[in-house]
Design goal:
Structural class: alpha/beta
Shape: globular
Strand order of the largest sheet: 8-13-12-9-10-11
Radius of gyration: 22 Å
Mean pLDDT: 89
Helix content: 25-40%
Number of helices: 12
Number of strands: 13
Strand content: 15-25%
Order of helices and strands: EEHEHEEEHEHEEEEHHHHEHHHEH
Length: 372
């Protein structure tokens, strides 16, 4: 079994998606995190001692990636992790990020999506402190996966960020993040004076209506509605959105031939690869359309939230498509709306190159929980 020698506290964090579940255990050396244990100090003193805890004081002890579909419950997943790493100690706090809406950091509260196990589990934070985990995990919360990304943004090392527009970040101003991957997720953060930290707020902005700005985009919108019954921003700005856009362009018949190697039902990855390599004209146009729609969504967020503390692009597509983001999205975001360009130009724009930012945010929240 793992040794507890010299470790004062343990936190567990996880990012549970529809496909993979990644779990980590972090430990902090006794005394290294500003916690005076084993003294009979008053509770209030203890609380203030704990408020100096920082996520950076905790170092990785163990991690493992599981297939989400292999488990029937959140408790089962965490128990399997602890068994796998042979951990016999006590976890002081846990935070698990899940793909779906979460109420009060306690339970999932959205539609059950057959392709996403966590929604079928009816996952609850109580799953982690009861049953076979009772006494092994002292306190636990669940957060939405994009809330976790929001909490991770400020904890990212500078190497994990690419600055796309170098406006000065205004202290304590709102922050926003829009992340494209399997879907389109959004989160925004506001500064809380009392806590002296940012608070992340959930958003379903990716599910707002896709608003066309050109005749071609109107036709794309009609195509999405005909195919799926709706046209959200996510219908265009996401991996599946890239496929929708590609299929729409093929349906117009204006391209004579599609390169061999891209079949109509092909994965978004094949389309983006061909687009970045410039080997298929339809793929190139599809990616450009998606980048323009992503820029338009960034403009909407810029006007609604005024994220002068930073507007971050995240999600699995950002690192892969960084060259197209630089080439198409950035100039379109800054110059594409002359009416309000002055607002857009005040937003620092960053690309998040670390796909594990949500796991980092779950760690940040687990450490915060120790002081609450």
């Amino acid at each position: 079994a793992m040794s507890d020698k010299g470790v004062g506290m343990y936190v567990l964090c996880g990012d549970v998606g529809g496909t993979n579940s990644r779990l980590q255990l972090h430990g902090a050396a006794a005394g290294a995190v500003g916690v005076c244990q084993a003294t009979g100090e008053k509770e209030t003193d203890h609380g203030s001692a704990r408020s100096s805890l920082s996520h950076s004081g905790f170092t990785l002890v163990a991690e493992h990636v599981f297939q989400s579909a292999d488990f029937a419950s959140l408790g089962g997943l965490v128990s399997a992790f602890l068994e796998k790493i042979k951990f016999g100690g006590v976890i002081d706090s846990a935070c698990i990020a899940v793909c779906g809406p979460v109420e009060n950091e306690q339970h999932m509260s959205g539609p059950v999506l057959p392709e996403q196990p966590p929604t079928q589990w009816d996952a609850r934070s109580s799953d982690l402190v009861t049953g076979e985990l009772k006494g092994r995990v002292l306190r636990a919360v669940l957060v939405n996966d994009f809330i976790a990304i929001g909490l991770g943004l400020k904890a990212l090392p500078p190497d994990d960020l690419v600055t796309l527009h170098d406006a000065p970040a205004e202290p304590n101003a709102p922050i926003a993040c829009v992340g494209a991957g399997t879907g389109l997720g959004e989160v925004y953060l506001t500064w809380e004076d009392k806590a002296q930290q940012y608070r992340a707020w959930s958003s379903e902005g990716g599910m707002t209506a896709f608003c066309p700005q050109t005749d071609q985009e109107w036709a794309l919108r009609k195509f999405c509605v005909a195919q799926n019954g709706h046209a959200t921003v996510e219908s265009v700005v996401s991996g599946p959105g890239l496929r929708n856009t590609f299929n729409y362009l093929v349906s117009t018949g204006k391209h004579d031939a599609i390169s061999p190697g891209i079949s109509l039902d092909d994965l978004p990855q094949a389309i983006s690869t061909a687009a970045l390599a410039g080997t298929d004209a339809v793929a190139v146009e599809a990616l450009t359309l998606m980048m323009r729609a992503w820029a338009a969504e960034c403009q909407s967020i810029s006007l609604r939230v005024m994220p002068f503390g930073g507007l971050y692009l995240a999600g699995g597509l950002t690192p892969k498509l960084i060259s197209a983001i630089r080439e198409t999205l950035v100039p379109e975001f800054l110059e594409g709306n002359p009416l309000m360009a002055s607002i857009h130009k005040r937003c620092p724009l960053y690309a998040v190159m670390n796909e594990s930012v949500g796991l980092l945010g779950a760690k940040v929240r687990a450490v915060q929980l120790l002081s609450e």
